[in-house]
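Chain A, query sequence.
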Amino acid sequence: MNQNRGIFAGLAVLVVLAFGPAIGGRMNIDTSFLAEVLLTAIAAMGVNLLLGYTGLPIFGNAALFGLGAYGAGLSIKNWHVGFLVSILLGIAAALVGALIIAPFLLRRRNIYFGLLSLAFGQVFYFIAYRYSDLTGGEDGMSFARPPLNLGPIHGTVSDTLMYYVTYALFVVATVAFWLIVRSPFGRTLVAIKQNELRVRYLGLNADRFILVGILIAAVYAGLAGALYGLLLRFAFPLLLDWHQSGNFILMTMLGGAGTIFGPLVGAIIFVIGKDVISTITPAWEIVLGAFFIACVLGFPKGILGSIGAALNRGRAEPEEELVPAVAIDQARAKIQSDSVQ
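Chain A, predicted structure.
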């Protein structure tokens, strides 16, 4: 019953987002800000997969986000590729970055995993900052937004069309994320978070699962980064900086790590909150930080996480404690099946 209720709530959210430009127009919210909410939510999903479900603090995820933006921008500027191809090349750039750093990250766990990812993120940041001939350096790199040629849709990509492209990709990313975390692979990631040693004793290669998790997170970060670059028609080094990584972690924790729509809730609060508060006071970061502290104290598991925990309080066993057991049982059955064959 709770699962069906969550599915219906998620569908209701997606229906409301489909009318985002109309709702934003009535509330005097620019369509580009609504698109920014969705694409930053996509990036936060990648953080959520590693932090919320696998228990690995990814402090340098902005590097993959920035690589997505630069991958799209450089491919447009140098190779004159189309709109959709630039997005694919942005994702490819993020995947290449993930493949470079993943072998080093797999050797560490807990805070050391986070610090090493942060260090690699800063390396990518300084590369973008120093190689001005390629990336534009500190001033960044501007590029045109190519036209969209997809079936019956042809022509210039306006901000409204950019929103709906972002919305369509957000829906695909959300459905894919739901399928991933509900699959045996996703349940094994949760099992690794709860008891990695036990997973290894069952004969499963935890490093291999984590590697795939890192690559999936890179796809989400690269997709979001490419969309962000196309939204702004601009890429700059601060997209790869640790401050941006902190923003993604903030959104994930604020909305609820380990929940499907937690990153979206966090992105709505952060992006729109930043836009509204910054018009009122230049000290908007202090106000937003105070709000974050209040949410941590009032909602220790994030907004959606705490609401879900309150709804499940009367159950005999919380669902999050049953997930690792299910993953272990599935892994044990697979091992027994392989031994019989």
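The chain has 15 helices and four strands. Residues 206-232 form the longest helix (27 residues).
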